[in-house]
């Protein structure tokens, strides 16, 4: 029966179970195994004796060998002759009715099982040795009762002190006849045989008792209940054995050597291997009713199974935990290996810390001498910190980025400057026409640098209307000085952090613009162009203007401290060039530190030069057109400037020229395309007649004609025209190719509007002769200077109706200035014509066209007075006169700004005479002669002088 159950559970091994078995049955299992595997292995007989000595019921073992051995104890005794080491030839268990009683402390000995015990009593041990020598190796093994009121923990210790009667009284009545198989020192190995019951004590020391050999009660082998119970025991045992390989071995050996189990043996086996306590086991031992014994055993094995299940689940849980940890460990190891492989085999240096600091050190080494010591110290500290930080931490990234910036800056690296004045002059002239002030200033700067041996940083501010070349000259200056160029705009900038950088603790922190600049240019002496400094925003937190001051001020910027960088950097060698349209909005302290160079705008003559020598050339190259393919006449250019591009700058002029050249490019390409389509014979006919002609493209209407006439101004391949494939055709095509260079598109005043459309700019001058009440003033805007009219007219007249009405989007200053003008005009009229009640009785309307443009400023004061007086006196103002000047209530004329712009604007409007405040005489004298050409200027300091000039 058990054979089947052991074979089914061989596959299952549970380490945890083994451990427990060893603990629980330690006294039984390990020596048993030793015996099984060791000393007695050679003698299968021993096994047989071992497990089956007590076959008292004479039941039927199947193994013939076993049968032979097990048929009866007598036979066994007979067989044992062959193994003299164990039992003498004359051995008969039945003879043992008086035996030495051995106390067992932990468990009873079951028949067929093996047990080592320790005998501490020397007398007892000597008696046992003696009996073995006398070939009578049997004793009675009895379980020791626990002393009343003790927990049995010191039972073993007390046991050795028990002697004689005391010991006798403490023994359980039912025990086992035990064969002494060997004695090693004080260790005695017993094998259980049959059950015994003590009847009386024979002698005290050693304790010898008289015993009866007892047998199970007879039972019916075919009894169903018995069968069922025993099957249940077996099936439970099978479950238990599944998780206990140790007992499986036992069972295997047990069956191998004693053959089939009988019911009582099943019960004994189950009880012996169960973990039941000693009293329960003793109960099984004492039970002679087979059915009852089986039931008792069933209880024990069921309990055993329960324990084994719990044990299994505990083992499983622990195993899972261990395997989880193991997996994590394994994955970590794998990751490490992959990273290593990435580094060495793929050359990818992931976030390997050493590789990173190596990189930084590599960057650092060449410039180590030039780096200031305090910066070097910070870098070293950060490098050490980097090694200590966890690579995945955010702090690590912050440090890495910080180091990246620190090591990338050009500490003490300067580009070799150009101190050659002539060469610089040449470069500046190459890029820009005019702008003498700016160029002169730069040459001075170079000269100073040459004399000193080093150049210093400076702040230059270029102010002027858009498109006058402020930005582009900045670039050109950098080229002339051989400095790196960096440009950034501060228009609308309101965040101080843009200039000063964020503190490193913020996520996504960045250094300020200046540090970014140094990193990107790679030198510590670049030219930095700060665009639109007049449009600096107002910060909600911190003032960008103050930050700019800190950046620009030569007193401070030698130790400029960026919040992100946190170490001072030296900006004293940087040349700052700022651009602005107006100076008024530049913060005072900032303006104070700048050298302002005004670029007023260009007069027509200058624009002609710029257009001819710079813009046209540039555009032509940009459009891929050869100089010989186009001619823009002077008259066309003049018309373009006068009628289309009258503003101060040349950006619009540049756009118009680009427009012209784009159109020309398209025409040239179209002509080329037509040329391809021409038939060879057509070509023959045409090429001769048109080859040397200059074709005037007469606008879009005539383009078709022109297209036919101009044959091949394009990129066509001569061979591509070759349709017939004859050599003659190729010759023709070559001729055409030659003629290509002679074709020219001519842009003249007459066809200019074909290219740029109708003139968008009408003359500022609306009147040839200004009517009564209208006077021309001169204004200045951020776009440059312009002329404007001030008109007054009478609304109604009547006693006491005198009033002033203002329109034309005037600002507060201009409104006040109108009020002043009204008062002054009234006073003057009273002087000149005391009888005239005009102002007292007339409601006057004063308007400044164009009504859609907002205007402000005090400089129209004298113009308004003149206009009011002209109306009051009903006299038109002298022809071609324009004026500008602020007037006080006492009629004094105060200076105004933008003299050059206003002069240029006056010239544009064909004004012949200008009135300027006396205080502006110096400004005017400084103007270039070509600007002043053809203009008559009157400087005045009192309004009465203007009155004389105007009327
Ligand atoms: P701004 O910065 O003053 O608005 P830019 O520097 O952008 O003007 O100039 C606009 C264009 O006009 C540029 O292409 C520049 O080359 C051209 N330009 C301006 N002034 C001159 C000049 N004096 N000579 C040659 N080109 C000029």
From TrEMBL:
Gene3D superfamilies (UniProt xref): 1.10.8.60, 1.20.5.5270, 1.20.58.1480, 3.30.230.10, LON domain-like, P-loop containing nucleotide triphosphate hydrolases
Reactions it catalyzes: Hydrolysis of proteins in presence of ATP
Top class in the EC scheme: hydrolase
Subcellular location(s) of the protein: Mitochondrion matrix
SMART domains, sorted: AAA (SM00382), LON (SM00464)
Ranges of Polar residues composition bias in the record: 713-728
Keyword hit for Protease: yes
InterPro entries hit by this protein: AAA+_ATPase, ATPase_AAA_core, Lon_bac/euk-typ, Lon_lid, Lon_proteolytic, Lon_Prtase, Lon_prtase_N, Lon_prtase_N_sf
Key words, A-Z: ATP-binding, DNA-binding, Hydrolase, Mitochondrion, Nucleotide-binding, Protease, Serine protease
EC number(s) recorded for this UniProt protein: 3.4.21.53
Signal peptide: none
Pfam family, one: Lon_C
Superkingdom field: Eukaryota
CDD domains noted in UniProt: RecA-like_Lon
Ranges for domain Lon N-terminal: 99-305
Region ranges (Disordered): 55-81, 710-734
Enzyme active site: 859, 902
Sites where the protein binds ATP: 464-471
Domain Lon proteolytic: 769-951
The family this protein is said to belong to: Belongs to the peptidase S16 family.
Chain's role: ATP-dependent serine protease that mediates the selective degradation of misfolded, unassembled or oxidatively damaged polypeptides as well as certain short-lived regulatory proteins in the mitochondrial matrix. May also have a chaperone function in the assembly of inner membrane protein complexes. Participates in the regulation of mitochondrial gene expression and in the maintenance of the integrity of the mitochondrial genome. Binds to mitochondrial DNA in a site-specific manner.
Subunit and partners: Homohexamer or homoheptamer. Organized in a ring with a central cavity.
Protein name, per record: Lon protease homolog, mitochondrial
Source species: Penstemon davidsonii
């Amino acid at each position: 029966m058990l054979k089947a159950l052991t074979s089914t559970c061989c596959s299952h091994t549970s380490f945890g179970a083994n451990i427990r078995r060893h603990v629980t049955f330690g006294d039984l299992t390990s020596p048993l195994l030793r015996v099984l595997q060791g000393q007695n292995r050679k003698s299968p007989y021993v096994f047989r004796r071992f497990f089956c000595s007590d076959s008292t019921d004479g039941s039927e073992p199947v193994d013939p060998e076993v049968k032979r051995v097990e048929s009866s104890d007598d036979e066994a005794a007979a067989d044992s002759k062959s193994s003299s080491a164990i039992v003498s030839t004359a051995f008969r268990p039945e003879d043992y009715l008086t035996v030495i009683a051995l106390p067992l402390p932990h468990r009873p000995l079951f028949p067929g099982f093996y047990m080592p015990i320790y005998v501490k009593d020397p007398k007892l041990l000597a008696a046992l040795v003696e009996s073995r020598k006398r070939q009578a190796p049997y004793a009675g093994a009895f379980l020791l009762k626990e002393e009343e009121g003790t927990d049995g923990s010191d039972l073993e210790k007390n046991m050795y002190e028990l002697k004689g009667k005391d010991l006798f009284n403490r023994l359980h009545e039912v025990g086992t006849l035990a064969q002494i198989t060997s004695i090693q020192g004080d260790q005695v190995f017993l094998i259980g045989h049959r059950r015994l019951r003590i009847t009386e004590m024979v002698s005290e020391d050693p304790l010898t008792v008289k015993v009866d050999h007892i047998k199970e009660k007879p039972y019916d082998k075919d009894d169903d209940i018995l069968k069922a119970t025993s099957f249940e025991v077996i099936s439970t045992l099978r479950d238990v054995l599944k998780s206990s390989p140790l007992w499986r071995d036992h069972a295997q050996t047990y069956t191998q050597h004693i053959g089939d189990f009988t019911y009582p043996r099943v019960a004994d086996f189950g009880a012996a291997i169960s973990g039941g306590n000693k009293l329960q086991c003793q109960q099984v031992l004492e039970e002679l009713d087979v059915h009852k014994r089986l039931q008792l055993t069933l209880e024990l094995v069921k309990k055993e199974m329960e324990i084994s299940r719990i044990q299994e689940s505990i083992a499983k849980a622990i195993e899972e935990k261990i395997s989880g940890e193991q997996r994590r460990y394994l994955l970590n190891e794998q990751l490490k290996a992959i990273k290593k492989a990435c580094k060495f085999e793929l050359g990818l240096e992931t976030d390997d810390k050493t590789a990173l600091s190596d990189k930084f050190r590599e960057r650092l080494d060449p410039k180590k001498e030039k780096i200031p010591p305090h910066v070097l110290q910070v870098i070293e500290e950060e490098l050490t910190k980097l090694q200590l930080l966890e690579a995945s931490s955010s702090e690590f990234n912050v440090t890495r980025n910080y180091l990246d910036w620190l090591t990338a800056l050009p500490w003490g690296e300067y580009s070799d400057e150009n101190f050659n004045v002539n060469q610089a002059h040449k470069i500046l002239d190459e890029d820009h026409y005019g702008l003498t002030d700016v160029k002169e200033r730069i040459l001075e700067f170079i000269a100073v640098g040459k004399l000193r041996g080093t150049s210093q940083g400076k702040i230059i501010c270029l102010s002027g209307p858009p498109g006058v070349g402020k930005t582009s000259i900045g670039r050109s200056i950098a080229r002339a000085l051989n400095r790196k160029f960096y440009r950034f705009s501060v228009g609308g900038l309101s965040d101080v952090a843009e200039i000063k950088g964020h503190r490193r603790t913020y996520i996504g922190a960045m250094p300020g613009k200046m540090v970014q600049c140094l990193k990107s240019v790679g030198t510590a002496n670049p030219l930095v162009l700060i665009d639109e400094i007049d449009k600096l925003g107002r910060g909600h937190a911190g003032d960008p203007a103050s930050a700019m001051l800190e950046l620009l001020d030569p007193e401070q910027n030698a130790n400029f401290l960026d919040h992100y960088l946190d170490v001072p950097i030296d900006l004293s060698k940087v040349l700052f060039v700022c651009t602005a349209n107006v100076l008024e909005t530049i913060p005072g302290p900032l303006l104070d530190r700048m050298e302002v160079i005004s670029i007023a705008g260009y007069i027509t003559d200058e624009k002609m030069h710029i257009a001819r020598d710079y813009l046209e050339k540039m555009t032509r190259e940009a459009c891929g057109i050869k100089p010989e393919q186009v001619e823009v006449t002077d008259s066309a250019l003049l018309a373009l400037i006068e009628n289309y591009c009258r503003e101060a700058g040349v950006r619009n002029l540049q756009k118009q020229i680009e427009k012209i050249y784009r159109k020309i490019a398209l025409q040239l390409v179209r002509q080329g395309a037509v040329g391809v389509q021409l038939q060879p014979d057509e070509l023959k006919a045409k090429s001769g007649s048109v080859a040397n002609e200059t074709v005037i493209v007469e606008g879009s209407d005539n383009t078709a004609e022109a297209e036919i006439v101009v044959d091949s101004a394009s990129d066509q391949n001569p061979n591509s025209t070759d349709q017939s494939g004859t050599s003659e055709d190729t010759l023709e095509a070559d001729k055409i190719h030659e003629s290509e260079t002679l074709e020219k598109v001519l842009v003249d005043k007459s066809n200019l509007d074909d290219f740029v459309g109708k003139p968008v700019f009408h003359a500022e001058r609306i009147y040839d002769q200004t009517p009564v009440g209208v006077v021309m003033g001169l204004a200045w805007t951020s776009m440059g200077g312009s002329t404007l009219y001030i008109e007054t007219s009478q609304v109604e007249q009547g006693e006491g109706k005198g009033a002033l009405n203002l329109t034309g989007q005037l600002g507060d200053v201009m409104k006040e200035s109108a009020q002043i003008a009204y008062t002054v005009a009234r006073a003057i009229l009273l002087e000149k014509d005391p009888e005239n009640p005009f102002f007292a009785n007339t409601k006057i309307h004063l308007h400044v066209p164009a009504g859609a443009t907002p205007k402000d400023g005090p400089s129209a004061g004298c113009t308004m007075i003149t206009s009011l007086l002209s109306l009051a006196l009903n006299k038109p103002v002298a022809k071609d006169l324009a004026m500008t000047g602020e007037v006080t209530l006492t009629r004094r004329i105060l200076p105004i700004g933008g003299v050059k712009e206003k002069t240029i604007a006056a010239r544009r409007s064909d004004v012949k005479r200008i009135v300027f405040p006396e205080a502006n005489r110096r400004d005017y004298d400084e103007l270039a002669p070509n600007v002043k050409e053809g203009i008559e200027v009157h400087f005045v300091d009192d309004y009465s002088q203007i009155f004389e000039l105007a009327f």
